[in-house]
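Renewal narrative, Specific Aim 1. Our central claim is that a sequence can be written position by position from structural information alone. The example that follows is taken directly from our test logs and has not been curated for this report. It begins with the structure tokens describing the chain, in the order in which they were read.
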């Protein structure tokens, strides 16, 4: 009789406990993601770390680890986290996503040669992945940053020859127009800038239209085409009031509350870059933390990246000496010395 009772309990109650356990796991996963999507990153990180501890064998673990890597403030730790995911989830979509996000982080940290390797891996080994198209974009940006303009041109043409991508088309056109401009091919560059202008909505968060106007104006100035210079300056002022002053300061509207690294060309200096973020929330946190400690801090935007820089120094050695003490004091692990011209 006892054996039958135990069997009855196993059949009817144990599966129920399993279903309940699964529901708890899914609820915890959804709760962590919802908190992340609300940009409550501090609590999201806490929930995700708790999730990993409670459900170490979860099918959602890879996704949680990817989010935790994105929430990691320390550059070197984040790279290690991506490497761990790449090695642990080899052959899965999570591996490809980790390679891509690692590449973006390296690009943000201005480690362009290392970043290129990650995006090349995706293009060459995972050509049908959803991460392939944006990898072309970042590969082009890396080569542009390295002034490898001929290589950047090859990447653009390869992208165009595939004839299967479209989500990054405008961004690729804009990036390649910048390459043409850098090579002094102003006629070709302005045609591409104008095409980007024609097909981009003012609310497109991926392309800052006043910047496109500025490049078009510069192209026509270099071509000594006064008529078109006047035309586009007028359009810029009419459509984006106040943007001319922003462009002079190399700023975007959201950065007006931060000191910017704009100085006279005769007064160039060195500064210490201690953070570069794709997430403005983390940049804000670091900026406010350092301001509260009375440091001289600058907030700089380049494309989608938010960079935090500290101090002004007349020589590179002075900046480097300061940086070594600064990162030790603030418990940071990396920095870059930047010259501001």
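The sequence written for that structure reads:
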């Amino acid at each position: 009789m006892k054996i039958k009772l135990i069997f009855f309990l196993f059949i009817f109650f144990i599966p129920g406990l399993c279903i309940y356990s699964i529901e708890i796991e899914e609820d915890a996963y959804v709760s962590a993601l919802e908190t992340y999507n609300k940009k409550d990153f501090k609590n999201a990180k806490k929930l995700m770390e708790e999730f990993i501890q409670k459900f170490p064998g979860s099918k959602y673990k890879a996704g949680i680890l990817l989010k935790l890597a994105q929430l990691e403030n320390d550059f070197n730790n984040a790279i290690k986290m991506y490497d761990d995911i790449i090695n642990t989830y080899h052959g899965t979509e999570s591996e490809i996503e980790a390679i891509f996000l690692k590449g973006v982080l390296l690009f943000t940290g201005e480690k362009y040669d290392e970043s290129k390797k990650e995006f090349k891996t995706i293009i060459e080994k995972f050509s049908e992945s959803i991460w392939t198209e944006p990898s072309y974009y970042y590969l082009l940006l890396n080569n542009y940053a390295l002034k490898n303009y001929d290589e950047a041109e090859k990447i653009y043409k390869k992208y165009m020859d595939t004839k299967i991508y479209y989500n990054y088309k405008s961004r690729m056109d804009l990036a390649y127009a910048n390459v043409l401009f850098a090579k002094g091919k102003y006629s070709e560059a302005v045609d591409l800038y104008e095409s980007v202008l024609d097909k981009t909505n003012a609310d497109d968060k991926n392309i800052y239209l006043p910047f496109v106007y500025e490049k078009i104006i510069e192209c026509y100035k270099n071509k000594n085409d006064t008529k078109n210079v006047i035309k586009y300056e007028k359009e810029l002022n009419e459509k984006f009031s106040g943007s001319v002053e922003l462009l002079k300061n190399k700023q975007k509207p959201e950065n007006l509350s931060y000191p910017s690294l704009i100085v006279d060309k005769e007064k160039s200096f060195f500064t210490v870059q201690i953070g570069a973020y794709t997430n403005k929330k983390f940049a804000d946190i670091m900026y406010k933390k350092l301001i509260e400690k009375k440091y001289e801090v600058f907030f700089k935007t380049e494309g989608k990246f938010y960079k935090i820089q500290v101090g002004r120094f007349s020589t590179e050695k002075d900046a480097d000496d300061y940086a070594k003490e600064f990162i030790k004091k603030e418990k940071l692990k990396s920095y870059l010395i930047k010259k501001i011209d």
